[in-house]
C-alpha cells in the first residue's frame, strides 16, 4: 500500500483500519476506520454523541495512539509520530487563547515556538492571516476585549499561520449562539476554498455537516456507516442508521414484509399494501422477506392524494414557513409529512396519504438497504 501513496499528493491523508479502545479494550471508540482525505477536501465527521468522531480526529492528530492500523500523511507513515511533527493544526471547541497576550501574540504563538522566521516575516504572516479573518484592527487588543466569534477567529488564525497540511476542527462553533454559528460556517467554508487546504471538521449537527462538507463521513457505534456528498447521504443512504440520522424531520420507518405475487413483489404493512414498480423489481433480487423496514422521507408522503394508500389522523401541524411538518397517526404508528401549505386539508382531522413509491427504501433485519 505504501506504493500507492507515492502517487498521492503531498497532503493526502489516509487512515487505514484504525482501531482505538479504552479501558483494556472494554470501550471500542473507533473500529475499521478507513478514510482518504485529499489536499483540498472539506471532510465532516458526523454522528451522534459517543460514536467516535473525536477519537478518530485525535488519532489523526497524534493526541491518541491507535491500538492498530496506519496513518499516512502524504508519503510518510505518521501513526506513531508526535502531534507537532504531523503538520496538522487543531482548532478546539474551547477557544483557549492566552489571556495575558495580545491578539497578535496569540496568533503568532505557533510561529514563535517552532520556526526561526525573522520578526518581519512573522509580522507579515500574522497580518495576512488577520486580514483574511477580518480582525486586523484588533491585533493589539487582548482576547477578553473580543466577542466569542472574534475569539474563535483568533484561534483559527493561530492555526492558519502555521500553513498546515490540514486543519482539524472539533466542534469549534458549539459555544457560539445560533446566528453567529451560521455566519462562522459560511466564513469557514469560504476560507477553506481560499486556503485550498484540507479541513476535517467534527460535528454532531447534521445541518452544520450538510452546509460545510463536500464529503461527509457518517459514524455510529465506532464505525463509519457511509462516506458521501451531502446529496448522496441524504438521497442514497446505504443503511437504516444513515436514513434515520440524516434529515429533519426524520425518515418515517414502518415494519413491512416483502411478499412475492408471482409476477413481482408487494410490500405489505399493517395498514397498507402496494406493489414494487417494475424498475424496483428489477433491482430487488431478495425474494420474500419478513422483518423489513420501509423508510420514506416526510417529503415523499403525499397528503390529500388522488390515489390513497391509507387514511391517517392529523395530530399536530408544525409551521415551517413555505412547508409545514404534519404529524400523523395511522393504526398506532406515528408518521410525519412535510408538505406545501395548500396541501394541508383545512378543518379535517383525517387525511388520505400516499407514498411516492419510487422514493421508498427497504432495509433488511440488519438495517442494510435492499433496494
Ligand atoms: P461527542 O460528540 O460526545 O464528543 P464523539 O463521537 O466525539 O462524541 P468520542 O469522544 O470519540 O465520541 O468517544 C467515543 C467513545 O470512547 C465513547 O464511548 C467515549 O466515552 C469513549 N472514550 C473517549 N475517550 C476516552 C478515554 N480517554 N477513556 C475512556 N473512554 C473514552
Automatic annotation (TrEMBL):
<dbReference type="InterPro" id="IPR047641">
    <property type="entry name" value="ABC_transpr_MalK/UgpC-like"/>
</dbReference>
<keyword id="KW-1278">Translocase</keyword>
<keyword id="KW-0547">Nucleotide-binding</keyword>
<protein>
    <recommendedName>
        <fullName>ABC-type D-xylose/L-arabinose transporter</fullName>
        <ecNumber>7.5.2.13</ecNumber>
    </recommendedName>
</protein>
<dbReference type="InterPro" id="IPR040582">
    <property type="entry name" value="OB_MalK-like"/>
</dbReference>
<dbReference type="InterPro" id="IPR027417">
    <property type="entry name" value="P-loop_NTPase"/>
</dbReference>
<keyword id="KW-0472">Membrane</keyword>
<dbReference type="GO" id="GO:0005524">
    <property type="term" value="F:ATP binding"/>
</dbReference>
<dbReference type="InterPro" id="IPR012340">
    <property type="entry name" value="NA-bd_OB-fold"/>
</dbReference>
<keyword id="KW-0067">ATP-binding</keyword>
<keyword id="KW-0762">Sugar transport</keyword>
<dbReference type="InterPro" id="IPR003593">
    <property type="entry name" value="AAA+_ATPase"/>
</dbReference>
<dbReference type="InterPro" id="IPR017871">
    <property type="entry name" value="ABC_transporter-like_CS"/>
</dbReference>
<keyword id="KW-0813">Transport</keyword>
<dbReference type="InterPro" id="IPR003439">
    <property type="entry name" value="ABC_transporter-like_ATP-bd"/>
</dbReference>
<keyword id="KW-1003">Cell membrane</keyword>
<comment type="subunit">
    <text>The complex is composed of two ATP-binding proteins (XacJ and XacK), two transmembrane proteins (XacH and XacI) and a solute-binding protein (XacG).</text>
</comment>
<dbReference type="InterPro" id="IPR015855">
    <property type="entry name" value="ABC_transpr_MalK-like"/>
</dbReference>
<dbReference type="GO" id="GO:0140359">
    <property type="term" value="F:ABC-type transporter activity"/>
</dbReference>
<feature type="domain" description="ABC transporter">
    <location>
        <begin position="13"/>
        <end position="246"/>
    </location>
</feature>
<dbReference type="GO" id="GO:0055052">
    <property type="term" value="C:ATP-binding cassette (ABC) transporter complex, substrate-binding subunit-containing"/>
</dbReference>
<dbReference type="InterPro" id="IPR008995">
    <property type="entry name" value="Mo/tungstate-bd_C_term_dom"/>
</dbReference>
<dbReference type="GO" id="GO:0016887">
    <property type="term" value="F:ATP hydrolysis activity"/>
</dbReference>
<dbReference type="Pfam" id="PF00005">
    <property type="entry name" value="ABC_tran"/>
</dbReference>
<dbReference type="Pfam" id="PF17912">
    <property type="entry name" value="OB_MalK"/>
</dbReference>
<dbReference type="GO" id="GO:0008643">
    <property type="term" value="P:carbohydrate transport"/>
</dbReference>
<comment type="function">
    <text>Part of the ABC transporter complex XacGHIJK involved in the uptake of xylose and arabinose. Responsible for energy coupling to the transport system.</text>
</comment>
<comment type="similarity">
    <text>Belongs to the ABC transporter superfamily. Carbohydrate uptake transporter-1 (CUT1) (TC 3.A.1.1) family.</text>
</comment>
